[in-house]
Design brief:
The complex is a heterodimer of chains A (495) and B (325). Chain A is built from 21 helices and 15 strands. Chain A has helices at 2-29, 48-62, 73-86, 101-106, 114-119, 130-135, 158-161, 164-174, 184-194, 219-231, 254-264, 279-287, 299-306, 363-374, 376-383, 395-399, 402-407, 413-426, 439-454, 460-478, 480-491, and strands at 36-42, 65-71, 93-97, 137-138, 141-142, 145-146, 153-157, 207-210, 291-296, 316-320, 324-329, 334-342, 346-347, 352-356, 431-432. In chain A, the strands form five sheets. Chain A has a five-stranded mixed beta sheet. A four-stranded mixed beta sheet of chain A has the order 8-9-7-10, sandwiched between helices. A two-stranded antiparallel sheet of chain A has the order 4-5. Chain B is mainly alpha-helical and 325 residues long. Chain B has a two-stranded antiparallel sheet with strand order 1-2. The chains are: A alpha/beta (495), B mainly alpha (325).
C-alpha cells in the first residue's frame, strides 16, 4: 500500500495544482466574466447596428455582457448629458458625435485612454486617418476611438449630366460645359437647369437638387458645407466659427452672408416641401431618382448604390464639395477673387466616436469593447455593411475593394465614391467641425436662424446677425476666457 | 335560550355612556379619533411622498432654475442670477413668435373641434341607425399616440409623394405647400389637431346629449317647437356648460402641443409652427440651456394657469346664468 501511495500522491498534487490553475486559465480566456457594460448610442439601425453585430462575439470572447441603451439622435446628447450631470446615467461606453467631445471631455466626463491606445498594437492607430485621429483628441490627450468617418460630399446623376441632349442645351444656355459642379454657383446653375423638367424622359417632372433645410434635421452642417469655401482661404485658422483672439463669432461676416444667400436660393430648386427635408429625406429621394444633385454624408452614396429599392444604382457620381471663386478673409476683412475655385471640404459632424465614461467601474472592459468596434477587421465589415451608419475612416478601408463590391457597389460608382472621400479627407484645406463646450447651443442658435432665412422670415444678414448675437451671449455665459482657451487648443494655437 | 343569557338580566348592547356633560363625550371622542388619524396619515404618506417627489420638487426646481445660471462643469451647479432669464424671455423674439403660433393654434383648433365635435354628436344622437359604428370610428384618432399621428400626417402632407397632393393633382387642382408655404403649415397643424381631438369633444357632447331628459324635449315638441327652436332654446342651453368644459380641457391640452409638430414640421418652416413647448424643448433639451428652457416652461405654466383660471370663471358665470336666467 505504501508503495502505491508513493506514485499517486505527487500525481494528485499535480492534479490539484492544475485544478487550482483552471480559474486563472478561464479568467485569461474570458477576462470580463460577470461584467456588464451599459452602452448608449442612437436608436437602431444606424450606429446601434455595429453594437448588435459585434456585441455577441465580444460577449463570447470575454464573458462580459452588453446592455445596449438607445435613444433617438435628437435626444441622445441630452440623455448622455443629463446622465453625466445628475450622475444617473450609469453608462460605461458611449458612442457619440465627435462634435460633443468638447462638452464631454472638456467637463471630464470621459476617461483619458491615451496610454491604452499607445500600448495597443492590435488597434493599428496609424491606420486611422490623421483627420479622424484629431476627432478624439482633446487638449493633446485621447478620449475615445473613432468608429466612423464623416465628410460631406456632392452626388450627381452621371447618366443625366452625360446626356448629349442636356449637355447641348446647357452649353447653349450657360455658355459652358455641363459637368459635375466645381463651384457652388455651378451647382446652383445645374439645379436651376434641371428643376421642374422631365430630364429622365419618362413624362414626369423632376427636380434639381436635394438638401436638408429642416431645423433639427442637420441643416447646420448642410449650410456650413456651403459656407466653408467662401470664408476659409487655405491656412486661415478660426475661419469657420470664431476669431481665436477675441472669440467674436465669424458667422455673420460677408463670406457667410454670401454663402447663405446662395444656399437659400436652393430651397426653390428641389422637390416641393424641401424646406422640411432632413438628411434621411435626401437619401431616400435621391435613391428614388427624384433629383440630379444631392449633398450629404457618405450615406446617400451607400443608399443610392446598394439599396435594393434604389433606381439610381450604377448611375451615381460623387465629387468633393464644390468651392468658390471668391473667398473672404476675416483677418484682412477683404474678398479675394480667384481663377481656380477655393475648395474647403467640410468634415461635417466629424464622425461617431466610442468613449469610456470616467465613472465606469470596468474601464478595461469598456475600452476593450470600443477597440472591438474600431479594430481594422470589424470596422471594415461595419463600413461595408448597410444601415450601420459607419463610413470609412481608416486608410485600409480604401485599399480593400472586395468588401465594397460585396456590399453592392458597382463601378464606376465605387471608384468615384471612394476617391471623393479620400480626396476630401486628404485635402490641405479640409475643415473640421466645431468641437467646443456648448457646441449644441451654438448649433441650435444658428440652425434656428438658418431656418428663418430659408423660410423668408429674415434676410441672410438679419438671420446671421441674430445668430452671432446669440453666439456672443452663449460665449459670455460659458466664460469667454475659458472658451477662448479651449477653442485655441482645438485649433492647435498657443494660449 | 343558550347563548343569549337570561332575558331577566338584559345586557346593554353597548358600553354604558357615562352620565355627564358633553365634556365627557368630548374627552372620549379624541381618544377614539387619535389612533384613527395616525393610521390615516400612514396610509396617506406614500401619496404625499409621491407628490412631493414627482410634482412639488420638480416644480420648485424649475422655479429655482428660472432664476439661475447652470454650469455643467463637474456636475450640475446653479448660481443665482436674479431676473436675468426673465428679462431675456421678454426680449426673445422667438418666444413671442412661438407664443403667437400657440395662441393661433389653440384658438383655431379648439374652436373647430368644439363646433365639429358638437355637430357630429348631434348627428349621431339624432340618427340612431349605425350610431354604434360611428361612435367607434370617431374614436380611432383619439386612441392613437401623437407620434403615430405625427408620422401618419407627415406622409399624408408630403408635398412630393403624399396622397393629399396626389388627390388634388388628380382632380386638376394645383398642389398645396402643406408644410412649406407661408402660413399654410400652421393651418396644417390645426388640421392635424382637429383630426385627432375632435373625437374627444364628440364623446363628451354625445354623453351630455344622451343625458338630456326626454320630457324636456317632448314638452318643447308638444309646445310646437321646430327643430331649429328645439336646438336654440333647449339643446344649446343644456349643452353650454359641457361645451365650455370640453373647450377648456382641449385648450389646456392644446397649449402643450409638441409631439405632432415636432414630427410633422419640426417647428418650421423657419419658426412658423414652433409652439411654446417645442421652443422650450429645443432650448432646454436640444441646446441644453436648462435655465432658460425652465423659464420658458414656467412662463407657459403661468399662461396656461391664467387661461384656465379665466375659463373656470367663465364657466361659473355661464352656470350661474343657467341657474338664474
Amino acid at each position: 500500500m505504501r508503495g502505491s501511495a508513493s506514485w499517486w500522491k505527487p500525481l494528485g498534487a499535480l492534479g490539484l495544482v492544475g485544478l487550482s490553475l483552471l480559474p486563472a486559465w478561464g479568467a485569461t480566456q474570458r477576462p470580463y466574466e460577470g461584467v456588464t457594460l451599459t452602452v448608449i448610442t442612437q436608436s437602431p439601425p444606424y450606429i446601434a447596428k455595429p453594437v448588435q453585430m459585434f456585441g455577441p462575439a465580444w460577449e463570447r470572447r470575454t464573458g462580459g455582457r452588453i446592455n445596449l441603451v438607445t435613444t433617438p439622435f435628437g435626444e441622445l446628447y441630452q440623455r448622455i448629458m443629463s446622465g453625466f450631470t445628475l450622475g444617473a446615467g450609469g453608462f460605461d461606453v458611449l458612442i457619440f458625435a465627435s462634435a460633443w467631445m468638447g462638452d464631454f471631455a472638456g467637463n471630464r466626463y470621459l476617461l483619458d485612454i491615451t496610454e491604452r491606445v499607445r500600448a495597443d498594437r492590435g488597434l493599428q492607430w496609424d491606420d486611422i486617418l490623421p483627420t479622424y485621429q484629431q476627432t478624439v483628441n482633446w487638449g493633446g490627450r485621447l478620449y475615445g476611438l473613432p468608429v466612423d468617418g464623416d465628410v460631406h460630399l456632392v452626388y450627381y446623376r452621371r447618366d443625366v449630366l452625360s446626356n448629349p441632349r442636356h449637355r447641348q442645351e446647357f452649353q447653349r444656355r450657360f455658355g459652358r460645359e455641363l459637368r459635375p459642379p466645381q463651384t457652388w454657383v455651378e451647382y446652383r446653375e445645374i439645379a436651376e437647369f434641371f428643376q421642374g423638367t422631365d430630364w429622365a424622359g419618362d413624362g414626369r417632372r423632376r427636380y434639381g437638387v436635394l438638401e436638408a433645410f429642416r431645423r433639427g434635421g442637420q441643416a447646420f452642417w448642410f449650410f456650413m458645407s456651403h459656407a466653408a469655401p467662401y470664408v476659409c482661404p487655405p491656412g486661415l485658422k478660426g475661419c469657420l466659427f470664431f476669431d481665436p483672439d477675441t472669440m467674436r463669432p465669424q458667422i455673420n461676416n460677408p463670406g457667410f452672408v454670401r454663402a447663405l444667400e446662395e444656399w437659400t436660393r436652393l430651397v426653390r430648386l428641389g422637390p416641393p416641401g424641401m424646406i422640411n427635408f432632413d438628411s434621411g429625406d435626401v437619401r431616400s429621394q435621391f435613391a428614388a431618382g427624384v433629383a440630379v444633385l444631392a449633398k450629404d454624408w457618405g450615406d446617400t452614396g451607400i443608399v443610392g448604390s446598394t439599396d435594393p429599392k434604389s433606381v439610381v444604382k450604377g448611375r451615381v457620381g460623387t465629387v468633393v464639395l464644390p468651392g468658390s471663386l471668391e473667398v473672404y478673409n476675416y483677418r484682412t476683412r477683404s474678398w479675394t477673387r480667384l481663377s481656380r475655385p477655393n475648395v474647403a471640404p467640410y468634415l461635417a459632424f466629424g464622425g461617431w466616436v466610442c468613449g469610456v465614461a470616467a465613472t465606469t467601474r470596468h474601464p478595461s472592459a469598456a475600452y476593450d469593447f470600443c477597440r472591438t468596434l474600431a479594430s481594422p477587421q470589424n470596422s471594415y465589415v461595419a463600413v461595408t455593411t448597410s444601415e450601420t451608419g459607419f463610413n470609412p475612416f481608416r486608410a485600409s478601408h480604401f485599399r480593400n475593394l472586395e468588401g465594397w463590391r460585396r456590399f453592392g457597389f458597382v463601378e464606376p460608382d465605387l471608384s468615384s465614391y471612394l476617391t471623393a472621400i479620400e480626396r476630401s479627407l486628404s485635402h490641405p484645406n479640409a475643415q473640421l467641425d466645431l468641437k467646443l463646450p456648448g457646441q449644441a447651443r451654438y448649433l441650435d442658435a444658428l440652425e434656428t436662424q438658418l431656418a428663418r432665412a430659408a423660410a423668408g422670415q429674415a434676410t441672410p444678414q438679419q438671420a446671421l446677425d441674430a445668430a452671432a448675437a446669440e453666439w456672443e451671449r452663449i460665449t459670455n455665459e460659458l466664460g469667454r476666457d475659458r472658451q477662448r482657451r479651449l477653442y485655441r487648443a482645438w485649433l492647435g494655437l498657443p494660449e | 335560550m343558550p347563548g343569549w343569557g337570561s332575558q331577566s338580566e338584559p345586557k346593554p348592547p353597548c358600553p354604558p355612556v357615562e352620565a355627564g356633560t358633553g365634556a365627557n363625550l368630548g374627552r372620549v371622542a379624541p381618544q377614539d379619533a387619535r389612533p384613527r388619524t395616525a393610521d390615516g396619515n400612514a396610509f396617506v404618506l406614500p401619496a404625499v411622498v409621491f407628490l412631493l417627489l414627482f410634482t412639488v420638487f420638480p416644480f420648485l426646481f424649475t422655479v429655482a432654475l428660472s432664476f439661475s445660471r447652470v454650469s455643467l462643469v463637474g456636475g450640475l451647479q446653479l448660481s443665482f442670477v436674479g431676473l436675468a432669464n426673465w428679462e431675456r424671455l421678454v426680449s426673445d423674439a422667438r418666444f413671442w413668435t412661438s407664443l403667437a403660433n400657440t395662441a393661433a393654434l389653440v384658438a383655431g383648433a379648439v374652436s373647430l373641434e368644439v363646433v365639429l365635435g358638437f355637430g357630429l354628436a348631434l348627428l349621431v344622437h339624432t340618427t340612431p341607425k349605425g350610431a354604434g359604428l360611428f361612435r367607434v370610428l370617431f374614436l380611432i384618432p383619439m386612441s392613437l399616440t401623437p407620434i403615430a399621428v405625427g408620422y401618419m400626417w407627415r406622409m399624408l402632407l408630403n408635398e412630393t409623394i403624399g396622397p393629399l397632393n396626389a388627390l388634388l393633382r388628380a382632380v386638376g387642382l394645383p398642389p398645396v405647400g402643406w408644410v412649406s408655404a407661408g402660413l399654410v403649415p400652421l393651418f396644417s397643424m390645426i388640421l392635424v389637431d382637429v383630426w385627432q381631438w375632435t373625437p374627444f369633444v364628440f364623446v363628451v357632447c354625445l354623453a351630455a346629449l344622451q343625458a338630456l331628459p326626454d320630457e324636456v324635449v317632448e314638452a318643447a315638441e308638444l309646445d310646437g317647437a321646430s327643430r331649429g327652436q328645439l336646438l336654440r332654446y333647449v339643446v344649446l342651453p343644456w349643452m353650454v356648460p359641457t361645451l365650455v368644459a370640453a373647450g377648456f380641457l382641449r385648450a389646456v391640452e392644446a397649449f402643450k402641443i409638441v409631439d405632432t409638430i415636432f414630427i410633422v414640421t419640426g417647428g418650421g418652416p423657419g419658426t412658423r409652427t414652433e409652439s411654446l413647448t417645442l421652443h422650450a424643448y429645443y432650448v432646454g433639451l436640444h441646446a441644453f440651456d436648462l435655465a432658460y428652457g425652465a423659464t420658458i416652461a414656467l412662463a407657459l405654466f403661468l399662461l396656461v394657469g391664467g387661461a384656465a383660471w379665466a375659463a373656470l370663471g367663465l364657466t361659473r358665470r355661464v352656470r350661474l346664468r343657467e341657474a338664474w336666467p
